[in-house]
Design a protein that fits this description.
15 strands, Quin_OxRdtase/zeta-crystal_CS, 329 residues, alpha/beta, ADH-like_N, seven-stranded mixed sheet, globular, 9 helices, six-stranded parallel sheet
Length: 329
């Protein structure tokens, strides 16, 4: 099989295609012939050496794949050879390869969704859509009519958060983006209005009024998260979904206590270690929404596996909307 291997931390030049032995399933696992793999910010952070304590070099990046079941290990039930699937490789990575080892609990049979879901869409969507679904439904427990703010609204995760918030009854959904050219995407991604992140506090106050917003979904972190506290109404909640800014600010517990506010964190990979069955069920329900076209995916571009470095460069530029995908075949 072919794999895209990172042997040391560095720029896009460290992404190297290598021939490796074919995979054999262990007990409780399956091997998938990968058709597509999603490209995400986590892959870039791994390439730069950000998670070496969890994923030491050499490492094959990639959190999400779609493809066809190649072989099935002992102890696995409910799948068949050749079945189209999408899977989350949250616990061991390895998606940038022509074969991948997957966990049944985190794998969704695409032919069971009752709709026609494209393989590239499935790989592009499964992690971010499941994260959005879980964050809105289980973490925030959104109420009918809530006013919601989403940061990085046109990104891979944000492009689903607005739609899922609307799906679960949000009354008004606002989002922030980093550049003016992304504002035109507002309606197609479920947003009532998209705002530039450089002046989001004043703009949200203008739209939401003095009462503020009920929830903020934030993959950006740093100063953006700190300033979002100004916008939360009493009993409002910030759901921390990442730290793309790289900034880390301490929040004063007294400020949160006296403001009757809360900050909740959600990381899909960490939760999958705790309850993979719940994460897999959420993935199936979320992909069912996509298959039935109740939500839509935004695939920015599809690149051959050998052009992974170009996909990384484009994602790092901040000029993408939605998700980038590698084609493995």
């Amino acid at each position: 099989m072919k794999s895209m291997v990172i042997e040391r931390a560095g720029g896009t030049e460290v992404l190297k295609v290598r021939e490796m032995p074919d995979l054999e399933p262990r007990y409780g696992e399956m091997i998938v012939d990968v058709a597509y793999a999603g490209v995400g910010l986590v892959d870039i952070l791994i390439r730069k050496g950000g998670f070496t304590e969890l994923f030491p070099f050499p490492v094959i990046p990639g959190l999400e794949v779609s493809g066809y079941v190649r072989s099935i290990g002992d102890g696995v039930e409910g799948f068949r050879i050749g079945q189209p699937v999408a899977s989350m490789k949250l616990l061991e990575l390895g998606g940038y390869a022509t074969q991948a080892r997957v966990t049944p609990q985190l794998t969704v049979p695409l032919d069971s969704l009752g709709g026609d879901l494209d393989m590239a869409e499935a790989a592009a969507s499964i992690v971010n859509l499941t994260t959005a679904y879980f964050a809105v439904k289980q973490v925030n427990r959104m109420r009918q009519g809530d006013t919601v703010l989403v940061h990085a609204a046109a990104g891979g995760l944000g492009s689903f958060l607005g739609q899922i918030a609307k799906r679960f009854g949000a009354g008004k959904v606002l989002g922030t983006v980093g550049s003016p050219d992304k504002i035109k995407l507002a309606a197609s991604l479920g947003y009532d209005e998209l705002l530039l992140r450089s002046d989001f506090v004043n703009e949200v106050k203008r739209i939401a009024g003095v009462q503020g917003v009920d929830a903020v979904f934030d993959p950006v972190g740093g100063e953006t998260r700190a300033r979002s506290l100004e916008l939360l109404r009493p009993l409002g909640q910030i759901v921390a979904l990442g730290n793309a800014s790289g900034g880390e600010l301490a929040h004063q517990s007294n400020e949160i206590w006296l403001g009757n506010q809360s900050i909740a964190g959600f990381n899909l990979g960490a939760y999958a270690m705790y309850d993979p069955v719940a994460v897999g069920q959420a993935a199936r329900e979320a992909l069912q929404l996509l298959a039935s076209r109740e939500v839509r995916s935004e695939v920015h571009g599809i690149y051959p596996m050998e052009d992974a470095s170009e996909a990384h460069r484009l994602l790092e530029s901040g000029q993408t909307t939605g998700k980038l995908v590698l084609q493995m075949g």
